Amino acid sequence: MASRIFASISRLSSNGCITVNIIKSGHKLGLQFDTISVANNTRALSTSGRVFQEPQKDHHHHVNERHHNEAHHHLPNQCAPISSQLNFIEPSSIPRVPAYRVLNPDGSLNDDLDPTLTDDKIVSMYEQMVQLNAFDKIMFDSQRQGRISFYMTNFGEEAVAFGSAAALDGRDWIFAQYREAGILLQRGMPLKLMLAQCYGNKEDLGKGRQMPIHYGNRSLNFAPISSPLTVQLPQAAGTAYALKQRGEGQIVVTYFGEGAASEGDAHAAMNFAATLDCPIIFFCRNNGYAISTPTNEQYASDGIVNRGLGYGMSSVRVDGNDLFAVYAVTRRARHLCQHESRPCLIEAMTYRVGHHSTSDDSSAYRSADEVRQWEQEVGPLKRVYNYLCAQGLWSEERQTACLKEARANVIEALNWAESIKKLPVSSMFDDVYDELPDSLRRQRDELKEHLEKYGKHYPLAEHEGI
């Protein structure tokens, strides 16, 4: 005869433990488990299958105490010390987080700190910063001339890209926003390929399907840039988790502005990375404006750095116009990510000297004097220039030659990009499906028929064909 089993809940203790009475063939047994940790309960019941005899009173107290301690271990809210004082924590009582600085605006070293970079490396980084600056100036003008449809400059934020990139391993993955072109230059992406992307010609790695400055380069571990705000953060967190599983020593760095930090995806990504100990650096460029909204209208707290602490991440604030400081904090953060497999947050305090984009006119919400002061007095290019001159590593003559060469490099690449045709119009149907469905075949054929009939009304000469 088969055994008959009955179960009922007999008590719910104050610490969240349930005692279940199980009656099998007339014998009463007791099973107690902690309702707090569902995952642990599932593992315990599925792997051990143990049923305990109903405990005596003293033993029951001991078991409850044991489970209380386990709950104490699992729940942070039960780890908090108890107080009889009712006090709110006022933001004004918490000191503002200082920004780490190595290089002062006048080119001197703060407290005689070591830049930890060789002279040759500093010179090379400065030359690349000048190159990016020249690239931005010419491409901004190109948009104004109608040569390209859109552009976003990096003026004032060059130290963020070059300082952080120099501290990373080339195998580390980058999930950028849209002011990290310097990372691509630092990793060796040719100017011609960057211009091919802006012009959308057939040499563009993205086949001309993205807006200008939405770079991507798989060989450089640089994920394609997306226009929607903050979508790169969850992508980066997931990638970091995957890299952690592989265990090959790579990390992820994702860049975003302080405005993007207000998006919900930022919360999801940081919480995911912190709870799963993902090797990722959340790099916030706090440049003062979310398009036209100044920081004092974006948040009431002390910037973004404290949010990292709220998620349980090691966090640091750095002078984002200081090439040496950005390098130092990124190198330290990478070490924590790689060797301790945990996330970090860096808030770089910088300033967006240029317009938000070619669709923006920043003179409508800030003064020219404000921009001029940041650019000339504390800007990253001026600061490194002052340092190099003070060290006898640079001169006015070399500066003139560097500017001339940088401009020539961009002009040469621009002329090349304009000479390259775009892919055939019908290529827009490629790479959507492994095998093109009938519905898209019909659309492709209809488009071809239309262009063959009315092609004179379209700039088809820019393409290799229909």
UniProtKB/TrEMBL annotation:
User: Where is it located?
Assistant: Mitochondrion matrix
- Any keyword Hydrolase? no
Q: Which InterPro entries match?
A: Alpha-ketoacid_DH_E1_comp (IPR050771), DH_E1 (IPR001017), THDP-binding (IPR029061)
Q: Any idea of its EC number?
A: 1.2.4.4
- Alphabetical UniProt keywords: Metal-binding, Mitochondrion, Oxidoreductase, Potassium, Thiamine pyrophosphate, Transit peptide
| Chain coiled-coil ranges | none
| Any Gene Ontology biological process | branched-chain amino acid catabolic process
**What cofactor does its activity depend on?**
thiamine diphosphate
UniProt GO MF annotations: branched-chain 2-oxo acid dehydrogenase activity; metal ion binding
* A GO term from the CC aspect: mitochondrial matrix
Q: Which Gene3D superfamilies match?
A: 3.40.50.970
Q: Report the catalytic activity.
A: N(6)-[(R)-lipoyl]-L-lysyl-[protein] + 3-methyl-2-oxobutanoate + H(+) = N(6)-[(R)-S(8)-2-methylpropanoyldihydrolipoyl]-L-lysyl-[protein] + CO2
Broad class of where this protein is predominantly found? mitochondrion
Q: Which residues form the Dehydrogenase E1 component domain?
A: 127-424
The protein's job, in short, is: The branched-chain alpha-keto dehydrogenase complex catalyzes the overall conversion of alpha-keto acids to acyl-CoA and CO(2). It contains multiple copies of three enzymatic components: branched-chain alpha-keto acid decarboxylase (E1), lipoamide acyltransferase (E2) and lipoamide dehydrogenase (E3).
Query: Which family, according to the similarity comment?
Result: Belongs to the BCKDHA family.
The name on file for this protein is 2-oxoisovalerate dehydrogenase subunit alpha
Name of the gene encoding the protein in the UniProt record: BCKDHA
